[in-house]
Amino acid sequence: MSAQEVNFDGLVGPTHNYGGLALGNVASEKNVHAPSNPKAAAKQGLRKMKAIHDLGVPQAVLPPQERPEVWVLRNLGFEGSDSEILRRVGTDAPALLVSCSSASSMWAANASTVGPSADSADGKVHFTPANLRTNFHRAIESPGTARILQAIFPDEGRFAHHNALPAVGLFGDEGAANHTRLCESYGEPGVQLFVFGVHAFDRSAPRPVRYRARQTFEASSALSRLHGLPPTRVVFAQQHPSAVDAGAFHNDVVAVGDQNVFLVHEQAFLQPERVERELRAKLEGTRLHWIEATCKEVTLEEAVASYLFNSQLVTLPSGKKALVVPIESRESPRVWAFVQRILVEQDMIDQVEVIDVRQSMRNGGGPACLRLRVVLTDTELASVNRSVFLDDRLLRALDAWIEAHYRDRLTPNDLADPKLLDESRKALDELTQLLNLGSIYRFQRQNA
After folding, report:
1. Is 371 within 8 Å of 105 (Cβ atoms)?
2. 238 backbone φψ class: left, alpha, beta (φ>0; ψ -120 to 50)
3. Fewest Cβ atoms nearer than 10 Å: which of 78, 152, 169, 337?
C-alpha cells in the first residue's frame, strides 16, 4: 500500500529557557541559567522544517504546550490568581517555576511512540504518549500531548490513541527517541526496534553507573503489546551503559535509521552483533545497510557533542536518502570526516544538509529531537487535520506569528513575570486558530 513518512516538528514555545533540568543531558547542564532567545529558537526550528519541506519530504507542525503550567502549581498547593501564583513560586520555589515553564515539548521525538498500520494487528496507526517520568518538567507533558495528538489524528476508525504507561520507574518511557522502524518501503510491514537502557526487574543486568537510564525494557515490551505487534516484527535491544554514561540519554543520540538504512555508533548497543543479526533475520528479503562509526573514528564523547546521530535521515522523492545534520557536526573535524567517508563509500545516503538549531542544541536537542515521525497511507493522510501541514502560506503565517509574540531574550528570573504568561496564552490562542486545533489548552476551556 502507498504510504509516506511525515515529520511532525514541535514548535518551540515562548518560554524556551535554559533551566538545566535534565540530569544526564550534557548540553543542558552546561548551559544552565544562560539567557535564551525564544524568538531565534522558534525561527531556527521553522527554518529546519522548511529545509525538510524543500527536500520534498512531507512536513507538519505540533504546537507547543501551555507554559507556565499554572494548573500543576495549583495542584501542588499554591493559591491565588495566576499572576499571584507566579510571583509567589518565583520567590519561594524558583526551581519549581523553571520546571513548570520548560518548553521541552519542542522535542517531539519524546512525545509519543507511533506504530504504523502496516505493522499492527488491527490495521490502525497507534499512538502512545510517553510518560517521561524520569524528569518532572517532562512528566507533566503527557496529558497535553494526548490532547494535541487526538486533535490532529481524530478518526477513531484509523487511529488508536492509548493512555501513557503508568508513570512509575518500572515503566519509564521516553517515546520515539528510543524507537526505530526499519522496512523496505513505508507501506510494507516493517521491523520495529525498541531500545531500552535498563531491565527494571533484573537488578543483576548491566546498567549505567553515572546517569540513570530513562527507558525500561518493561516499558518497551508494553508498547509492543499495546500496538499489536507480532514477535516476528519486533526487536528489543539494550543501549550500551557506556553510551548513557557519556550523555546519550536517548538512543537517537547514538543511532538513526530510515527504511533499510541504519546509521549507528559502535557503542550504541550492548550486544550490537546480536541486534544486527536479529534485524537482518526479521527483515527477511530486505537488505539492511548497517553503517557503523567505530570508536576510533568518532568517540562517544564526540558523538554526543556533535549530535551526529541525532540527525534526520530522510527518504527523498527520488528514493535516495538525505542526512540532515546540525552545524556542530560540520564543526567537528573527525565527525565531518566520518560523514564524508560514508558519502564516498556507500551509495545509500545521497546528500548531507547542514542546519543551524543552536538554540535547541544548547539545551540538548538536535534535529531528530525536534520531530515525531508518523507513517501514513494515502487514506490515513486524508483523515489528518491538514491545517498542520507546512506549506508556503503556513510558513509565512508562523513566521509572522513568532515575530509578533516571542521575546528575543529570556532568563529564568523572567518566568515569574505575569506578562510572559499573558503573552504566551495570547500566542497559543492565535496558534490554535491558525492550525484549526480547537480548544486544546486548559486556559481556553476555562475561559470558554
Report:
1. no
2. beta
3. 337
**Per the residue annotation, which of 250, 265, 289, 405 is the catalytic one?**
250
pLDDT at 32: 66
- 295 catalytic? Reply is no
Looking up cell 540538548 gives 364
Gyration radius of the chain over CA positions: 21
66, 174, 276, 380: which is the annotated catalytic residue?
174
Q: Which of 16, 369, 380, 405 is catalytic?
A: 369
Which residue in 10, 167, 165, 13 sits closest to 100, CA to CA? 13
Quick check: is 174 catalytic? yes
Q: Do strands 159-161 and 371-377 pair parallel, antiparallel, or not at all (unpaired)?
A: unpaired
> Taking the mean position of all CA atoms in its chain, how far away is CA 256?
13
Q: For 338-389, what is each residue's pLDDT tens digit?
A: 999 999 998 899 999 999 999 998 888 999 999 999 999 999 999 999 999 9
Could you give all domains of the chain from N- to C-terminal order, each with its CATH number? 3-67+102-447 (3.75.10.20)
- Residue 161 annotated among the catalytic residues of the structure: no
